[in-house]
Amino acid sequence: MENDILIRISGVSKAFDGETVLDHVSLDIHDKEFVTLLGPSGCGKTTTLRIIGGFETPDTGDVFFDGKKINDVPPYERLVNTVFQKYALFPHLNVYENVAFGLRLKKTPEAEIRKKVQEMLAMVNLKGFERRRVTTLSGGQQQRVAIARALVNHPRVLLLDEPLGALDLKLRKDMQNELKRIQRETGITFIYVTHDQEEALSMSDTVVVMANGQIQQIGSPEDIYNEPKNAFVADFIGESNILDGVMLEDYKVKFSNHTFVCVDKGFAKNEKVDIVVRPEDVDVVAIDKGMITGTVTSVTFKGDYYEIIVDVGGFKWMLETSDHVAPETTIGLFIEPEAIHVMKKSEYSGMFGDYSSFSDELEHLGDPEEEVEE
Amino acid sequence: MRKTSLFQKIAAAPHILWAILFIVAPMIFVLYFAFTDAEGKFALANIASLSQYGNVFVLSIAFALIATAICLVIGYPLAYFMSRQSPRAQKILMVLVMLPMWCNLLIRTYALMALLDNGGLLNALLEKLGLHKVSIVGTNFGVILGMVYDFLPYMVLPIFTAMTKLDKRYIEASHDLGCNGWQTMTRVIMPLTVSGVISGITMVFVPSISTFYISQKLGAGKIDLVGDTIERLFQNPSTYNVGAAISLVMMLLIIISVRIMNHFSDDERESGHGKSGKGGGIVP
């Protein structure tokens, strides 16, 4: 595996006006991989992408491409192309000329340009749009032109900076599938930046979770979801109940005043830990069958399941269940050993409370979609 | 288009009145004088006599074109340079470019003359240094220099505005797709700032072609442009009619050149639906 590393970022730091944006980031990206840099606004994901693209130079640390150091190589000499956040299609050129832009610079023969541009436009389902002005296209169409314009140059790596951020939900889902298909067909390495965890999980081979200029975790979507390394990752990816616990001994952890059997080991005796339990991993059972009990405080119908908030000794859990439970009833909770994930305490411990103030609206308001990261 | 309300009509009234008094009425007078003789009877003699002023027209157009070209060559890189500076530096440079415009055109021209005259500062300095005097005032070069000096800000400002409005992402995209600095300039920055260039050319060419003061002062009376001819003809009531005929041709020339300019910027602005509308040109 070691020799198919295409890009190596090694100890890279970057500050803007004295404010640290990247803090000793190291990352290996393999050839033909679909890597997603995931994190909230201001976490440094876009800066990482811009350093790979050559639009920023690292203050410290090195960037290697195919084993060669490229810190000071300008963007136009890198085998990398970018799909920009708001596409940045050239408004003075039509669709055809936008896509042909890179080929013309390489003095490609006209016949070859025509062939390649047609191929690309067919690949992004924009046949027949050659003569259209880019300003007359919809967001989704502009998106496709931007992808075609980048891919026609056959880059080794395609950088995508929140490319679907400006599209509506339905279109976004379609484009996700299409991007995945294009990546498979072309075998080009994709580095994708997003703050949308769902997008990251469904598209990527590898997810890199970032926060505060540091990488929190690198792993497959399954790893990131099932084995979050710290409270930040657990909270950012999907819904999670994050509790304080004590590791009594190997395979035995105590939280919510109950000692649970778990599958984790290797902690010190009585070490304080963070516990993650996903809402869908808790079974709602009768009171006498439950390991712990709680009172249902709210029930929300979500279509294929109910999302319920349960008060267990003052800590509000979120659970997902397919059976209807009436509010104000007391229920038992049953948690399998595999459903309990134990994490070491980190700087993020205690930052994410329970679901007592949870509401979908607040979640939505907190969405950093509109913010542009610098 | 919404219908204009009574309020909007009232709000526009002063301007309409102004336009009628000072724009439409003089034009009607120009037309009237151009096509009448000294007794006020219809005549085409004035138009017919224009042929003797052919040289003056050619010279004026040539001077205006050269001055505009020089302004463009100096102004475009200057505007580009300014747009690349920090916002603070941009403000300072902007003031420096604008500063001469705070001073009356005539005074500026006079000052330039005082600097360049045979007994002026420049020549006094050259003499002190034991060098040859240069005669600039009274030459073609002097007049063109005056035009460039007076009208350069009108070239720089619209181009600078277009440059600052240019989204930096286009420049990054061009680098990303393989453009080096020069290619980015010719393939992206220049095409996307055409509108500023068009405005600049129009704003320099039009006053250059109609100027009379610059050519009088810096030409030392030796160089006769259309503006000078018109001024001279209007100083004697008996030649009003010929003067008006030249003015008329002048106006047509300007309208045609502005039209041509607008055509270029329309091409750039129009989207693929063919030619609809005429954009925000200066000429209706």
- How many H/I helices of chain B? 13
**Which ranges of chain A are low-confidence, i.e. pLDDT below 50, for 5 or more consecutive residues?**
361-374
The CATH class of chain B, by name, is Mainly Alpha
Strand order in the sheet with the most strands of chain A = 6-7-8-3-9-10
Give the percentage of residues in beta strands of chain B: under 5%
Strand content of chain A: 25-35%
Low-confidence stretches of chain B: 268-284
CATH topology of chain B: MetI-like fold
CATH 2nd-level architecture of the largest domain in chain A: 3-Layer(aba) Sandwich
Give a quick account of the main beta sheet of chain A: strands, pairing sense, barrel closure: 6 strands, mixed
Q: Measured on Cα atoms, how large is the radius of gyration of chain B?
A: 23 Å
Q: In angstroms, what separates the terminal alpha carbons of chain A? A: 33 Å
Total strands of chain B: the figure is: 0
Distance between the termini of chain B: 18 Å
Oligomer: heterodimer
Describe it for me?
Chain A is built from nine helices and 20 strands. Chain A has 374 residues and is α+β, with helices and mostly antiparallel strands. Chain A has two domains: 225 residues, P-loop containing nucleotide triphosphate hydrolases (Rossmann fold, 3-Layer(aba) Sandwich), CATH 3.40.50.300; 115 residues, Beta Barrel (OB fold (Dihydrolipoamide Acetyltransferase, E2P)), CATH 2.40.50.140. Chain A has a six-stranded mixed sheet, with helices on both faces. In chain A, strands 13-12-11-14-20 form a five-stranded antiparallel sheet. In chain A, strand 12 and strand 13 form a beta hairpin. The longest helix of chain A has 18 residues. Chain A starts with a strand and ends in a 9-residue tail after the last helix. Chain B is mainly α and 284 residues long. Chain B is 72% helix and 0% strand. Chain B has 13 helices and no strands. Classes of the chains: A alpha+beta (374), B mainly alpha (284). Chains A and B meet through strand 6 and helix 2 of A and helix 8 and helix 9 of B.
